[in-house]
Amino acid sequence: MSDGLPARIDRATLDRIIQRATELQTGSRDIGDNLTTDEVLKLGKDVGIDEGYLQQALLEETTKVHLEETHGLWNKLVGPGMVGAQRVILGSIESVEQQLIRWVDENELFTIQRQQPGRISWEPIGGFQAAFRRSTAALGGGKRPFMLAKANVLAATILPLEPGYCNVVLTATIGKARSGYIGGSAAVVSASVLAAVAIAAMSPFILVALAPLPLGLGLGWGIARQYRPVAERVQLGLERALDQLERGAVKPSHVLPGRSGGLMGIIADEVKKALKP
Question: 212-223: per-residue pLDDT in tens?
């Protein structure tokens, strides 16, 4: 080993090294603008990138679906009411659908709301089933946290691309959680305004009357800002689902045992999920 180089390199450092080495190698070549697909594939082959991975990256870049962005004061100050993630996945629509359904069923607190070819929507489960799944997850050591629990609707759109590839777009609506944080913030600010009005009616000193306002505004802003980490966690949950699809870590449904019927079947299934390594 060369002097000065570390004995071991972690994953984040490895990614930076590979990215930088690729930049150096491609930078040493005379590369013009507006390359054709064949030229990109040839360039990738020259720098040692597997053609299959490069083809997948090309498809992912050229078939991006631009998610609708909502504008407004609360979206800028608090955060979006909907987040999304997308990726090109190797596989047929049918296999990707089944893997995604199985993943959501095993790792999140959702049940299918509607299913059509290439499009699936989920809604949260509630009551005993949700409580029992949370408790069995705790028994399993919390190995698979429920990262989408704050979403009120989860949707997937699976679009066919070239043979063997699909573009998977996942979206999660979290408007209910955002409304709760906005409502809490508005309540605190309103209370401070009412307090200021009440004090103004009893005191001739304007500075005394305005004293509750900065405190109320600060508390209201602090409550509203707590929503952004919630949205970021849901976003990460969508990326996690796509990671599993990309790695093929979810087994197709035809190789998994069928569900048992009735309440005892649900309990048995949930216990198996929690204790499964």
Answer: 788 888 888 888
pLDDT digits (tens, 9 = 90+) for 33-52: 566 666 566 666 665 666 66
Residue 97 has pLDDT above 50, yes or no: yes
The residue type of 43 is L
Rg for the chain, CA atoms, rounded: 25
Burial bucket for residue 217 (CB in 10 Å: 0-12, 13-18, 19+): middle
Please give the C-alpha separations between residue 83 and each of 10, 88, 149, 156, 168, in angstroms, as whole numbers: 30, 18, 14, 12, 14
78 Cβ contact partners less than 8 Å away, ≥ 6 residues apart: 178, 181, 182, 224, 225, 227, 228
Distance (Å, whole) CA 74 – CA 227: 11
| Pairing label, strands 165-173, 110-116 | unpaired
Bridge partners (DSSP) of residue 124 are 110
Q: Quick check: helix, strand or coil at residue 3? A: coil
Q: Is the pLDDT assigned to residue 29 strictly greater than 60?
A: no
> Residue 199 in contact with residue 208, Cβ under 8 Å?
yes
Round to whole Å and give the CA distance between 96 and 105: 14
Q: Provide the pLDDT for residue 68.
A: 57
Residues 6+ apart with CB under 8 A from 159: 63, 65, 118, 166, 167, 169
Q: Supply 252's token pair.
A: 């197709």
pTM of the full predicted structure?
0.65
Confidence class of residue 99 from pLDDT cuts 50, 70 and 90? very high
- Which amino acid is located at 20 in the chain? R
Residue 62 banded pLDDT, cuts 50, 70, 90: low
